[in-house]
Structures are given as C-alpha cells and as structure tokens.
Amino acid sequence: MDDPYERLLKEATERARREGSNDVLEYVVLRASNDRLRAAGIEWLHRELVEIVGEFNRGGDSLALEREDDHRFSIGNATMQGVRLTVRGVGFRTLTVEAGWPRRPHEGIVRGGLAAARIQSFGGPREELVLVCERQGAPRWMARDATGRQQPFCVEHLRARVAALLDG
C-alpha cells in the first residue's frame, strides 16, 4: 500500500461503503480489479524480458535491461502511464518496450483492451499491443496490425525481437 494510487482507491472504496454509494463502490472495485490485471500484464512483459536477456547472456552475449517506472507515452490520442523497458545490445542497437494505461479520464482510453504497449527498435518494425482479458480472467497481450485486427503476442515473438539486436 505504498503506492498513492492504491491508497486513493482504498479510501474511495471505504467512503463509498460508508455512504452507501453502491454504483460508486462497484466502479471502484471494478477499477481496482482491472488495474491489478493491467499491472500483471505489464509485469509479465518485464519478467519475460528478464528471462530472455538472461538466456542470451548465459550464452555469451552482452545485453543489458533497464526499467523506467512512471514513464508516459502516447498511443493514438491517449496518454499512457506505465513503464519503459529498454534492452541494449552492442553499439546503438536497442529494443524499447513501453507499456501502460491512461490513469485519468482526460488522458483517453485504450481501444479494445485494458492496457497498451508499444515495441520498437532502431530500424525495426514498430508494434502496438493491447492487453485483453480472456473469459477465464487471465490477461493476454494481443498484437494489433494496421487494420486493427488482433493476434496473440507470444514469448517467442519477443525472443525474436531481442535476437534481432544481436544480428548484424
């Protein structure tokens, strides 16, 4: 509960319960649940990158992974707040993964999901991901193509993007 946002959600929940504001209470509970799913999806990206970078480094490569919290970036008309993960290869080669969600109403919405991510590397394709919640309640990243269609985003795809830093 060190996060100020978490404290605010807890206070809003308690206030809504005391005042009998069931609509507000339902919204705050849903928001908190969705935020936990968002955080889990973003943490999955980080955890997988740590594992992938570790695999390559154990094989003799020299990659570094950096994490910047409270990072802000835009996708479309929405401003996301979350993390920036940067994998540094040899020389100027980098892979950047930005992931987050709008925190305030005026920052917009994530179309078609709970959170958004962008993956880009110097000279490589730029990809946008959206975090969706499947029926079982587990979050899953989907890659969105230029037409808006979504396809599952998997660890092997992320591994290939990291491996591309070493080619050349």
Mean pLDDT: 88
Task: Count structural domains.
Answer: 1
Strands, count: 7
Derived structural class: alpha+beta
Helical content stands at: 25-40%
Report low-confidence residues grouped into runs of 5 or more.
none
Q: Which oligomeric state applies? A: single chain
Reported for the largest beta sheet, the result is:
7 strands, antiparallel
Salient structural properties:
168 residues; seven-stranded antiparallel sheet; 3 helices; 7 strands; 38% helix
What's the helix and strand layout?
Layout: H1 4-19, H2 22-58, E1 64-75, E2 78-88, E3 94-101, E4 115-121, E5 127-133, E6 139-144, E7 150-152, H3 155-164
Antiparallel strand pairs: 1-2, 2-3, 3-4, 4-5, 5-6, 6-7
Helix pairs in contact: 1-2, 2-3
Would you give an account of this structure?
There is one protein chain. It is elongated and about 60 Å long. The protein has one domain (4-164). The chain is α+β, with helices and mostly antiparallel strands and 168 residues long. The mean pLDDT is 88. It is built from three helices and seven strands. Helices cover 38% and strands 32% of the residues. A seven-stranded antiparallel beta sheet has the order 1-2-3-4-5-6-7, with helices on one face. The protein has helices at residues 4-19, 22-58, 155-164; strands at 64-75, 78-88, 94-101, 115-121, 127-133, 139-144, 150-152.
